[in-house]
Every structure is written in structure tokens, then in C-alpha cells.
Amino acid sequence: MGTLYDKYGGEETIAKVVDYFYDLVLADDTVNHFFANTDMEKQRRHQTKFISYALGGPNQYTGQSMAKAHQGMNLQPGHFDAIVKHLHDALSHFGVSKEDIDEALQKVEALRGDILYK
Is the pTM of the predicted complex or chain greater than 0.85? Predict the structure, then answer.
């Protein structure tokens, strides 16, 4: 069996998921303020490469470490959970199976310690 990256159409599909994901995030007042001064086009490109890699695609992610990227944000568990929910909903919207969403979110969950309370 191939990677989730290949199974769902590679970076082109993941870019669509990321666009939808950020539509959800930016509509959510509990987390959208974290992106108030963010270049969202650059953010979407970075996130597409990061999620592509997380789903077994090529490692093209050249951004900062998770801890460094979230430094000074003091993200709390509720913020992290909201982002995970939006990612879940975006993946579901594009027809990703429950099992594959669970697998992808396990990889995201593994980053919790690198992101919270920085």
C-alpha cells in the first residue's frame, strides 16, 4: 500500500485541503487571532509541504522547527484541539476515510509537546 499522500492525490489535493482548513481556522474566533499578522499565502504553502510530509510525501518542508515556529504564542490545549478539529473536518470534507484521518491526526498529536506553552 502507498502512502496517504499518494492515496489522496499528492500535493495538489493537500493544497486544497489546506485552503479549506485555513478557511475554517480563520472563521474561528478562538484561534484566528494567531494569524492576524501572518502572510497567509506563505503560511498555506508551508502547511501544504508540512502536511504532505506528515502524510508520507516527500520532505520539502524547510520551515522552522515546531517549537521555534510557535515560540511566544503560548498556545493552550484548547487552541491545539481547535486546530486539530479543523484539520479533521477539512480532511473529511475531501473524502479522506476515518481510518486515514485518525492516522494523520496521530502524527499531528505527536507534535503537541513541541507546540504548546511556548
Answer: yes
